[in-house]
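Protein in question kept underneath.
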Amino acid sequence: MFGDIMGMMGKLKETQQKMEDTKKRLDTVLIDEESNDGLLKITLTANRKVKSITIDDTLLEDKEQLEDYLVLVMNKAIEKATNVNEAELGAVAKDGMPNIPGMDMFK
């Protein structure tokens, strides 16, 4: 019994380290998104940190249009980054869950 608990604790600690390693790796995974016409481009990490924004000069002439573009493209980029982030971290969490009776909802 005690050995089982220690084994589970070790597995959880190992999973926690894998989660931290995955989070660090996701800082290097880049998500690119751009407007349909290519006038605005945004790059985020899979941890949803903005790395770059490229704005075509024609958008600088219309503040309202630029704001609309930023909202649309940022939301699409954040959604993509979130999907990658959740899939990667979810896979690590699922793989690292110990086999506890009644806790198979994570499998």
About this structure: The chain has one domain: 2-100.
